[in-house]
Task: structure prediction
Amino acid sequence: MAQTVRRPIEARYPSCYVPSRIQERRAKARALRLEQQRKPEKPEDFVCYSDSDSEEETPTEQHKTLCTSYNFVDYVRSREIQAPEPRSVDQSYATRHMLTHDMLRETPVNLGTVNKVFCSQWLSDRQIVFGTKCNKLLVYDVRSRSLDAIPTLRPRTPWPGAEYQTGIHALQINPSRTLLATGARNSCELAIYRLPTLDPVCVGEAHKDWILDMCWLDDEFLVTGSRDSKLALWRAPDTPITQATPQHNYISPVVTRECKAGQKVRALTFNRRWREIAALTLNGYIHVFNAATFRQTLSRKLPSCQDLVCLATQESGIYAIGCKSYTLLLDCRTLQSVKKITSRYNGCGIRSATFRGDLLTIGTGLGLLMFYDLRAGKYLESNIHSTKTVALRASRGYVFPDEGVDGYQQVKYVPAIYTHCYDDSGTRIFTAGGPLPAPLIGNYAGIWQ
Result:
């Protein structure tokens, strides 16, 4: 939540300096320790312990704790008057509060007849950009509820055929939010646009099969992963804005690397803390590349994982891998399994995953958005309904042909959540996707706020 180190104005101690807080703190720590020491029905494969089991704190630590206010009102008041007090706030606090108090409501987004949304990002507090299976790059305005199509970039070579136009599978914005990288009209090529105007910058040519994911290393360098089992490192050109009519260039990668022991790169992520690139391949391996040298350093066969789809990394370095029936957490230092988060619903394939602090958000093939608390080691629980966990259920969306949907595989139709993303404040979530079966055509999009 919020922390503010208060300083006394007239008295010797600040108003939050209440000695009984130490006893409350010890009682909570003792209860948490007993909960952690309780043996589970199925022991974990990997267990992490705290540095010390001692309940006692030094007088200096106790004094620091008593001088620190965890009241959100004190944080806001200190910020308003610009008091010279050290203060910080947990960026995910607003998200947790709104989720646990059942405050989020879905606003469906009408996308017409486009087919399946695969990737998305917030451009600003009012615009969302996303790519679809039908090779459309669209921008949705939250306030005016208008939908604009951005022209996809053409290849330089003659058109290879419809089999190479399989959709825009990935979309990423660089850290300074000046460039947008995504797929081109040919799904094997990279397209880069300038922000906020979305003017075309360049098209990257290297891969022989579809680009399924990408990640920025910094404002200039970008890595793409493809079904041709290769990773390519690109450098975005620094072109001045002098042309009256926007035009794009064609570039080649700085270097390409074959993913050893890997078949078809499905997902990529960049671990900023450890400066490494993690790649997930469809044959059940996770691979690690050194970001400085762009050379492969590790490969590991994942235990009994099926239908590997998504990969996310936490700031501390934990990897989350979405599988058919569970989410696997890996320690980035050893690639050993930390925890296997089983799904609360049968047949719930994991389609998307993101971290926001210690909160792991999971998009599923059953139209559910679930939230797992890493610190508590369990799904986020509701403060309104004590026996329920927090989950957001998506609306139906659009699907064609509608008359045969409910009879498909003898189950009721629900859209899969292929992508989800938070805005900067963490108080709004954009979720999108479409039908999970490949023969079905349709889409789903909604904003939770």
The two ends are 20 Å apart (CA to CA).
